[in-house]
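Posting this for the archive.
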Amino acid sequence: MSSPPSSHAYGIGVIALIIGMSVSLVFYTSFYVPESLAKPSVSEHILNPEKDLIIEIVPGAVIEGNENYVPNKANALLNVNNKVIWKNLDDTPHTVTPDHRASDRYSGDFGSSGVVKPGENYEFLFTEPQEIHYHCEPHPWMTGSINVEKSRF
């Protein structure tokens, strides 16, 4: 008959398991997580475009049938005017809410966090081509879109 394994062997196995898990955890938190959360490298020309693209939420936008986001269908070019600023010129709070989840690898999720109060702005820096359709959450008839394209330069 063979004798049962000693408790000493179990202890060594447990210690090896703990050391292995610790090394894995240190690697994951020190190397993998920061690398996966790092922002991508983006050209300085895209991060600092020549000018801003202004979209106004015009006075009376809250009234259905009136103009609301002007321009309503905006076009932006990377390197030229890819920093977009929505200015609320109305006397009512509004939002800039994507119709479907939209994000930019550098700037994160698109859409105002909460309402844009009268006289305030919402801005977003686009760093990659995309088309986004958006609306005002409390006033769903207010719709707009922005198409961001690569500059030909």
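The helical segments are 7-37, 44-47. Residues 22 and 28 are 10 Å apart (CA to CA).
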